[in-house]
Structure formats: C-alpha cells, structure tokens
Amino acid sequence: MPQTPRSVIPRARRARAALLASAVSVCLIAASAPTSAHPQGIGDRLFPTLGNPGYDVGAYDLSFTYPGRNDKPLTAVTTVLARATEPLERVNLDFARGTVRSVDVNGLPADFTRTGEDLVITPSVPIPEGGTLRITVRHTSDPVSPKGRDGGWVRTDDGLAMANQADAAHLVFPCNDHPSDKAMFTIRVTAPNGYTAVANGLPAGVRRAAQSTTWTYRTAHPMATELAQVSIGRSAVTRHQGPHGLPLRDVVPAQDREALAPWLKKTSGQVAWLESKVGPYPFERYGLLIVRAKTGFELETQTLSLFEKRLFTEPAYPKWYVESLMVHELSHQWFGDSVSPHTWSDLWLNEGHATWYESLYVQETAHRPMEKRMKAAYGLSDYWRVTGGPPAAPKGPKPGQKISIFRPNVYDGGALVLYALRQEIGAPAFERLERAWVGLHRDSSATTADFERLASRTAGRDLSAFFEGWLHGRKTPPMPGHPDWKSSATPPPPVRR
Ligand SMILES: [Zn+2]
Questions:
Q1: Coiled-coil stretches, from where to where (predicted)?
Q2: Among 9, 232, 273, 396, which one is least packed by beta carbons within 10 Å?
Q3: Of 23, 48, 322, residue with least CA distance to 178
Q4: Cα separation of 119 and 174, whole Å?
C-alpha cells in the first residue's frame, strides 16, 4: 500500500514504465520475404507494420453485437470508407484477432487472406487512384486476449471497455491503425436488455427490441483508431453541463454512482481551468468512463476518458493526486486527441503536455510547486535518456510489451523539455505557442518538427540548436536559469514502500 503521495504514482503508466529496463526494438516482420499478400506498414519507426499505404480513411462504421458475456466473441460488421491515393490491386487493413467471415468492396464480394497482423483484400475490380473504397468486413471481435498480447477490449466486472493505445485497435476491428490517418466514426452496439452501451461522440439513436437494445453514437470530429471507446456494462450514465454549456457525460458502474458523484462534479472546473490556459475545449462533449477493472493506467479515449474505479475509492490516494490524473487525461483531449501524434516517436507531445498541465494544475490548486518536480525530473533525465532514449527519439517497445514505449522519458522527461522551453523563451511566448499549437493543428496530426518550427516562429528566433539538445540529445542540456541543476545517468535508488 502506498505510504506517501509520491509513491502512489507507480499505478500510472509513467512510473510503471520506469521499472522497465532498456528496450530493444525487434522487427520480426522485416525478416520475412514479401509474398503476393504480405503485411504492410507506413514505416512508423516504433511500429513498422502499423497502418497501410495507398489509401486515406474518411469514415468507419462499426457495429458490435454483445452476447451478454465478456469471454465470448462479439459479432461485428466494420465498414471502412476510404479514398485510394494510388492505384490498388490489393488493400491491406490491420486486423489481428477474430475471425473474418466475408469481405465486400464497393458492393462486390472480395477475396481476402490473413498474413501477419494484416487482412489483405483483393477487390474484384482494381481501384484507380482517387477511387472510392467502401470495404465491409463481417467478422468477430474477441475480448479474450491470448497470453502476452494485451490491449483492445478490456474485460470489466460487468462487461467491456476499450484501451487501444498504441497499437491495439486492430485487435478489435479492421482498420488503418495509425494516428496519422484520423477519420469520423459511427459506432453501433447491440446488447441484451439490462446493459447500457456508450461510445465516443454524441448519441445518434436508440432502438429497443424485445430482448436487446441498439445504441448508436457518432463523432463530430475526426478520431484516431487508438482513441476509440466502447463501454458495455451495468452502467449509470450521468449528464451535466460544463462551461458555456459544454455537455458532460459520465459512465460509471450503476452500483458506484453515489460514491463517484463527488468526483464527477470536478470535471467542469477542470475544463474551465484548462480553457483558461490553452483555449476552447476541442470536442463536442467530455466525460469519464469509470470501470471496475485492473488496467494499471487511465486512458484519454476521445470525449470519454477511461479510468479505473479504485483510483477514486482507494483511500490511500490523496485528493490532489486523483485530480491531477483527471486533469492529465483531460489535457490529452487537446494534446494527443485533437492534435494527434503524426508518428509514435512524437508521443512526447502527448505525454509531455499532459504531464505539464497535470503538474501546473497541482501547483495552482494544491500548492505543490512545479519547479520542485522539474528539478527532480532533471536529476533523473540522463538516466531516462539512457534507458528510454531522448524524448523525441524514444527506444522501441520491448517485444511483447508494446505499451513499454510509455516511459518516463516522454512523461516527466517531456514536461521537462517544456519547462526548459518556457525558461528559454519566457512565459508569455510559451503561452502563445501552446494556444497556437492546439489551434493550428486541431483535428489533425502533427510532428515534433512542426512543434519546433512553431516555437521558433512564436519566439521570433531560431530554436533548432535548443531542440536538438533537449529533444534529440543523449545527454540533458543545462537548464536555462538553473545552472546548478545536475543530472545523472546512474539508476535512482529504489522507491521505498
Ligand atoms: Zn497520458
């Protein structure tokens, strides 16, 4: 049981990752010779086979039928609407779990085969460049993970939720599973009466039948596959209003509704606080999905962040700490969701910013100075760079532990880069940069180089040497304004429990 506020943090991803040794990226796919149907990827440095070249997805339509228990596959129909960016004789989708029953392309039956983590489709008529693709896949979606491959569906005490980051959406549905290809989503869930199904976005209809109910939800903004959320459970849905009428919607286990109510009231003030820092909330609604499950992390699924129930009910977690994680996931709606990473090496843009606002919130509301946290991070930064790589050139995931890219080098290490930048260019320029960043790249994806360029433009001077050291260097540069701060590459002493 945690004894001190700081020691409770290992339940979150950042510190869990700190326990992992340095990782070596192993690409097994590269060793196999290409055949007529072979796995493809768009060349992400950390996940080479994620995503597929040759098309751009505009919309997904997902339909799931829940059988009433979470250890059996759901039946599903996934329709992908895309535009070919080159002539296509074959189309690859990422899909790695579940059975494919049939595939249609533009209304005609298509041949398909499975290879690696790809579903390779041969349309009966080749698709010309610029042509429209409407791919319908009838398949199952299996919530039971084979050993060593977590992610995708999360089995809760009363149903299912989703945690697809970074590379697990294609364990749930066939897709172009990369955040650089965002699309609109319609999500439809049929479940036996007694269950409630909720997904990202706004409700678009409920249809009740004798034994089951079908809920439909639609996003009002494009979304990355990794941020899709579907909750099926014995849930209570609470609705209230946030700042300027922003609809807030929370989904909690029905039996925990009263215990969780005081926490849910905090969201509105947190949204107002973040809007005062970075500008308007970027989506159509927000809310918390709180589940009875052991995930070991919280996740910023778009418009509906996923949290473990025990974060709110375990008395050992201080109030400021719980609120800081709420603000962390809320910050991601701007940094990570509205502005997605263009590659997974840009992950520090997500986690560095979310850690930054989490830390700033705690400074302003709980009198826990950010400078103290940043000084501690500075002390560990060289070690984090040795074990995880520089913030913008992180080491790859460990084989079988793809979540291991979520290391401290991108969390407090990423926030430390932002702290150094604010020291370097001053608070007014830094605050202008933050607002400009989420405004300029809203509903899109962006790279680290985009951030560097915008920072230079905002500061009115070339910051490339600054970023070279802070984002790409093997050693932590001196901290502007704090020449006495020291960093060490030796492992920190173990946390006492
Ligand atoms: Zn995060």
A1: none
A2: 273
A3: 48
A4: 8
Residues with CB under 5 A from ligand 1 (ion): 351, 354
Which pairs from 305-311 meet CB under 8 Å and 24+ separation?
A: 305/329, 305/330, 305/332, 305/333, 306/154, 306/161, 306/162, 306/163, 306/229, 309/252, 309/253, 309/256, 309/260, 311/11
- What is the reported pLDDT for 149? 75
CATH class of residue range 34-332: mainly beta
Q: Would you tell me how many other CB atoms lie within 10 Å of the CB of residue 147?
A: 6
Query: 332 C-alpha to center of ligand 1: Å?
Result: 7
Q: Where in the chain is the domain with CATH 1.10.390.10?
A: 6-13+15-22+340-472
Q: In this structure, are residues 246 and 178 in contact, taking their beta carbons and an 8 Å threshold?
A: no
Kindly report the pTM of this predicted structure.
0.92
Q: What percent of the chain has pLDDT over 70?
A: 91
6-13+15-22+340-472: in CATH 3.30.70.100: no
Rg of the chain over all Cα atoms, to the nearest angstrom: 22
Distance, CA 326 to ligand 1 centroid (Å)? 10
Four-residue CA torsion sign, 347, 353, 354, 359 = positive
Pairing state between β 444-446 and 339-341? parallel
- Residue with the two structure tokens 């009198």: 367
Distance 415 CA to ligand 1 centre (A): 11
> Once rounded to an integer, what is the mean pLDDT over residues 252-261?
98
Give the integer Cα–Cα distance in Å for 425 and 456: 9
Backbone angles phi, psi at 432, to 5 degrees: -65, -40
Which segments of the chain belong to CATH 2.60.40.1730? 34-332
How far lies 451's CA from each of 12, 300, 475, in Å?
A: 26, 21, 21
Concatenating the DSSP letter of every residue in 16-40 gives HHHTS-------SGGGSPP-SS---
Beta bridge partners of 112: 121
**In 10 A of CB 114, how many CB atoms?**
14
Contact between residue 415 and residue 356 where contact means Cβ atoms under 8 Å apart: yes
SS3 128: coil
Hunting for tokens 């569906």 — which residue is that?
Answer: 153
Report CA(269)–ligand 1 centroid distance (Å): 20
Instruction: Return the H-helix or E-strand segment holding 13.
Output: helix 13-18
Pairing of the two strands 111-115 and 74-84 = unpaired
Mean pLDDT, the chain, as a whole number? 92
CA pair distance 54, 38, nearest whole angstrom? 14
pLDDT 10s digits, 1-36: 222 233 333 333 433 333 333 333 333 333 333 346
What is the 354 CA–ligand 1 centroid distance (Å)?
A: 6
CB atoms within 10 A of CB 203: 14
**Residue 480, helix vs strand vs coil:** coil
